Amino acid sequence: MDPLGATLSGLLDGYHSGTFSSEEAVGAFVRRIEAHNGRLNALIDFDPAPALEQARSIDDRRRRGEPLGPLAGVPIAIKDNICRRGELTTCCSRMLASYRPPFDATVIRRLRAADAILLGRLNMDEFAMGSSNETSVYGPARNPWDPDRSPGGSSGGAASAVAASFAPTALGSDTGGSIRQPASLCGVVGLKPTYGRVSRYGLVAFASSLDQIGPFGHEVADVARVLSVIAGSDPMDATSVEMPVPDYLAAIDAKTDRPLRIGIAREFFAEGLDPEVEAVVREAARVFEAEGATVSEISLPNTGQAIPAYYIVAPAEASSNLARYDGTIFGHRAEDFEPRTDAERDDLPGLVRMMMASRAEGFGPEVTRRIMLGTFVLSAGYADKYYVQALKVRRLIRDDFDRAFKDVDVILGPTSPVPAFRVGEKVSDPLAMYLLDVYTGSANLAGIPGISLPGGLSKSGLPIGIQLQAPAFAEETLLRAARTFERATDWHTKRPQLA
Amino acid sequence: MDVEKKTMEYDIIIGLEIHVQLQTESKMFSGCGTEFGLPPNTQTDPVSLGLPGTLPVMNGKAFNLALKTALAFGAEIARFTKWDRKNYYYPDLPKNYQISQYDLPFSTGGSLPIPERKDGGGGGSIRLTRIHLEEDTGKMIHAAGGMSEVDLNRAGVPLLEVVTEPDLRDPADARGCLEELRLTLRYLGVSDCEMQEGSLRCDANVNLHIRTDDGTTIATPIVEIKNMNSFSAVEKALHYEVERQFEKWKDDGLTIKDAHKETRGWSDPEGITKPQRQKETAADYRYFPEPDLVPVEVDDAWIARLRDEIGELPMARRARFESEYGLSAYDANVLVEQGQDVADYFDAVARETGEAKLASNWIQQDILRSIKEKKIGLGDLHVDPAALSDLIKRVKRKELNTNQGREVLARMIDTGQAAESIIAEGGYGLIGDRDALAAVVAETIDANPKALEDLAGGKKKPDAVKGWLRGQVMKKTQGKADPELVVELLEARLSELGH
Amino acid sequence: MNLSPEDVAKVALLARLRLEPNELATYTGQINEIVHYVEQLQQVDVSGVEPLAHGVEVRNVFREDRRTDSLPREEALGNAPKRNHEAFLVPAVLQ
C-alpha cells in the first residue's frame, strides 16, 4: 500500500498495521512535494527536516507503546493565515512578509496535542481575499487536474496540496466559500464548520463574523477526524460556543431511524450556473433518493441577495481588521514616505504619510479594493444605506435557512457555479470573481456549516463538487449525509495525474 | 457696537468628560497586568499588541465594576448592551480601532453630587449623560531624531468614560464634583483615581451665556480643555478659560454660531490654555458592532446582587454621621473623606464607646496624624477599633487624663500592646484622692506667695494666674492629677484665702 | 450613487491608502461597479428586521480577572519595523 494514495484514515491504518512507518509516509509526501510543488505552487515554504524528525519521534513512541494522539504521524498542511509561534505567517501578503507571531493559534495547539505533523505554509489569496488564489504575493497556486487552471480560492493552496497528495489533509479558512469552492474545483472534500464550532484565535482575521477554520481531505471520514480534534470552545475566543464535541467519525456511519430529508432550493438553478454543474447536482439528488433519502424542492428566497450582502459585510469588517497593518507594531513599513505633492506636504504629517505609503506598498490591489469598499460602506452618511441594510438582509438570509430546516435535514446544491477556470481568466474583473461565491457566501452570513464533496467530472475531466448545508451545530447530520453520497459513488477516489 | 456697555453678566456653562481606569488585575480583553509606571512595553501580550489573529475576551470584573459605578450614581442599567469598534488611526492604538460602546452603552442617566462649598455655594447635583466602557490606549513619548516612542503598557486597560450634561456653573463645583467622584469610586473599589498617574482624567467643555441688557443671551463658542492633570488644574484652567472667553468675546464678538468647537490644552506652569492642533482629517469613526465580542444581557438578579455589594456611599455617610452621632458637618466630612476604612473605624469606635465626639477627636488628632507621619495605612496600625475604644473608655472613667491617654495611645501604636498593660507598666493613673490632692494644692499656693500678690494686685488676669497654679499642681503630681478636681480644689482654697 | 475620484480619494485617506493617480481612476471605476451591484439590496423590504452583526447569537461571555504573564519585551518588539531598546518608533507626533 502506498501512503501517497491513502486517505487520512488509510494512513492511520497503515501506521497501525505496520505497513509503513510515519517516517516512510512523510518521506513519500516530501518526495512528492519536491517533485511537483514547483509546478503547482501549493506550498510556499516547506522545510522537510522538522517534519521528518517529528515522524521519527512518533515512530519511536509508537514502538515503545506510548499513548499517541488521534492524528499521530498525519501530515497536515496549514494555510498561511493560521499563526504558528516563531514561524512565518504572511497571509501571502508583502505586508507580513517577515512576520513571525509569538504564539500558536488554538487549532495549532490542538493539532500539536493530537501529534499531527505540521507541514509548510499553504498558498492562498492575499489575506484570504479572492476566489482563485491569484492575489497571492507568491504567485498563483495551480490546479493539479490542469495546472493551467486555478485551484479556486482563497484556500487554493490547501485544495491543490490535498488533491496532489502533498498531504492527506490540510487546514484552510472559509469566509465566503474559501474552503468549499477550492475543494469543489480540486475534487476534494472541504468542510466549513458552524461559526463558533472552531476557535478563531490565531486565525488572521479577514471578516470576523464570517471567518471559520476548517479541514480538507479526500473523504468525509478525513474531515470528520480533523474536526473532532480542532472543534470545541476556547477561552481565547468569545464567539466559540460552549458545546460538547461529538465523535464526528462515529457519527458519519451511524444508523438513523428515519430517512434523510434533502432539500434543493429552486433559486439555485439560476443564470450563471454551468449546465454541467447543474447536471451533477441533479444526479446527486437521484443518488440520495436511491439511498433512501427524500428529496424535495424548497425555497431560499433571499439567495440572490447573499453576494451583495456579503460584499458589504465582509469588506466592512475587513477594513477595520486590516487597519492594524500600518507599519508601526508589525508588518511592512515604507522606506520612502516623502510628500509627493505640495498638498501632501501641507496636509499630511509624516506619521500619516508613513502609514499611507506602508499600506499602499504592503497590500495588493484586491485587498486595497476591499478595504476601500469597506471603508466607504461604513462611512458617515452611507453606513445605514449599505452596512446596516446588509445586516438586515443577512438576518433575512438566516431566517430563510431556519424556515427551510424545519422541513429538511440538509440542503443540497452546487458549490461553485463553474468548474475550474483558467489562471488569468477572471482576475481582471473583480465583480465576476465575486459572483463565484454565489452558492457559498450565504452559509457564512447565516453561520451554518457547509461541505463540498466530489460529485462528478466535467466532460473535459475537471472535478465538480456538490455542496451540502445543515443547521448550525448539526455537523453530525451534515457529515452523515455527505457520507451517504460518498458510499454510493466513487468520485472521491479519483486522483489527478501529475505530469 | 459698544458691547461692553450692554453687558450685564454671564453664566458659566461647564460639562465634564471623565475617564477612569478600573482597578483590575488584568486588562480589559486579555491577561497581562495593569500596573502603572513599568518600563515601556514590559506589560503587553499578543492581544494588547493587537497582533494579527488575536481576539478580545471581556474581563468580567471590569464589567461588574462598571455596573457598580452606574448603580452608585443612580444611572439606568441597560438590559442589553454591546461593544462597537471606533475606527481611527493612531500609533498608541495598535489595532487602529478602539473597542468602545456607541449606541447601546451599558448605562445612561444618573447624577453626580455637587458638594457644598465653604462659601455656601455648590450643592445639588449634575446629570450624567451616559457611562460606557472602553479600552485605554498606549502612550506616545517624544524621542530623539524626529521620532516618537510607542509604549503599549497601558493599551487595553479597562476604562470608564463618564459624560456629564453641561450642568456645572462654577469652576469650583467642577473640582468638587470630581473630588466627590474620586471619593465614591474609591469607596466602591472601582478605581484608585490618581490624576497624577492618569487613572482619573478629565476634559471639560466650557462656554459662557452672556446676558445683555436688551434681555437676550449670547452663547460664546464651546472650548474643550484637555491636559488638566490635577484637581486644582481643573479649577484653575476653567477660571482662566472663563476670563479668556469673556475678554475674547468683548474683543471679537464671536458666538457659538460663528465658530466650531475649539480644543485647548492647559499649561500648568504658564497658567494658560493654548490651542491644540486639530487632527488632519475630519473624524469619521465608522462605528460598527464589534464582531469578536458578544453582547451582554443584564437581569434583575444581577443588578440586585451588585446593589447588595455597594455599601454606604460618602454623601449618605456624611449625613448619617451628622444625624446619628451629632457630629459637625466639618468633622463628618473629614472622617468620610479619609476613605471607607477610616469612616468604618470611626463607626466602630463611636458605637463601642457611645462617645462619638470623643471618638472623632481621638481619630482626627491621633490616629490620622500617626498614619500620616508613618506613611502607613489604617490597616497597618496595630490599634483596632476595640483597643482605641477601650482607651477612650478608660479616659472617660478617669483612669487617665487626656494627656496621659495620648501618651498611652502613642505607645499602643508603637508597640501594638493593649492600653491596660501599658498603663500598668508605665505607672499611669490619676490621683483622684480629694484629701491628698487638696494637700498638694495648699502646698503649691503656700510656696508661691507671688501668685497671690498678683491676684490681689490685679496686675495679671486671674485666669492666667490660676492656670499657672494649676500647671504647678500638675507638675508636682507628674501629670497624674485629675485636672477637673485640681480646678475645683484650687478655687476652693483660693476663696478660703479671700481671693 | 456614483463616487467621483475625489470621493474615492477621501475614502483612501480615511483608510490610510496612498493611491497613484492612475490607480485612483481604476479603483473609482471598479468601486462604482461594485457599489452599483450591491445597491440591489435597497430593493429588499427589511421593515421590522433587526440587523444581524454576529456569526453566532450568544450572550454574556466573560473571562475571569486573572493576570497572566506579559510577553518579554524583546518578543513584544520582535516584529517592529523600527524600534529602539524599549519601544516602537514612529515619525514624531506633534501635540
Describe the protein.
The complex is a heterotrimer of chains A (499), B (499) and C (95). With 499 residues, chain A is of the alpha/beta class. Chain A contains 17 helices and eleven strands. Chain B has 16 helices and 18 strands. In chain B, helix 13 packs across helix 15 and helix 13 crosses helix 16. The longest helix of chain B has 22 residues, at 231-252. Chain B is elongated, with a radius of gyration of 31 Å. Classes of the chains: A alpha/beta (499), B alpha+beta (499), C mainly alpha (95). At the A-C interface, helix 10, helix 12, helix 13, helix 14 and helix 15 of A face helix 1, helix 2 and strand 1 of C. Strand 10 of chain B pairs antiparallel with strand 1 (88-91) of chain C, so a sheet runs across the interface.
Q: How many distinct helices of chain A? A: 17
Distance between the termini of chain B: 80 Å
* Proportion in helices of chain B: 40-55%
Uncertain spans of chain A, ≥5 residues at pLDDT below 50? none
Decide which structural class fits the backbone of chain B. Answer: alpha+beta
| Amount of beta strand of chain A | 5-15%
- Main sheet of chain A, how many strands, which sense, barrel? 11 strands, mixed
Kindly provide the radius of gyration of chain B, computed on alpha-carbon positions and rounded to a whole number of angstroms.
31 Å
By DSSP, the count of extended strands of chain B is 18
Distance between the termini of chain A: 22 Å
Average pLDDT figure of chain B:
90
Write the layout of secondary structure elements.
The complex is a heterotrimer of chains A (499), B (499) and C (95).
Chain A: H1 8-17, H2 22-40, E1 43-45, H3 48-63, E2 75-79, H4 106-113, E3 117-122, H5 156-163, E4 169-174, H6 180-186, E5 189-192, E6 212-217, H7 220-230, H8 248-252, E7 261-265, H9 275-290, E8 294-298, H10 306-321, H11 342-347, H12 350-362, H13 365-378, H14 384-404, E9 410-414, H15 430-434, H16 441-446, E10 450-457, E11 463-469, H17 475-488
Parallel strand pairs in A: 2-3, 2-4, 7-8, 7-9
Antiparallel strand pairs in A: 1-3, 4-6, 5-6, 5-10, 9-11, 10-11
Helix pairs in contact in A: 2-3, 5-6, 10-13, 10-14
Chain B: H1 3-6, E1 7-21, H2 60-72, E2 76-77, E3 80-81, E4 84-87, E5 97-100, E6 107-108, E7 111-113, E8 125-135, E9 139-142, E10 147-151, E11 158-164, H3 171-188, E12 200-212, E13 217-219, E14 223-228, H4 231-252, E15 262-267, E16 272-275, E17 288-289, E18 296-297, H5 300-309, H6 314-325, H7 329-337, H8 340-353, H9 356-374, H10 385-396, H11 402-415, H12 419-426, H13 434-447, H14 449-457, H15 462-476, H16 483-496
Parallel strand pairs in B: 14-15
Antiparallel strand pairs in B: 1-11, 1-12, 2-6, 3-18, 4-5, 4-17, 6-8, 7-8, 8-11, 9-10, 12-13, 12-14, 15-16
Helix pairs in contact in B: 2-5, 3-4, 6-7, 6-8, 8-9, 8-10, 10-11, 13-15, 13-16, 15-16
Chain C: H1 5-14, H2 21-38, H3 73-76, E1 88-91
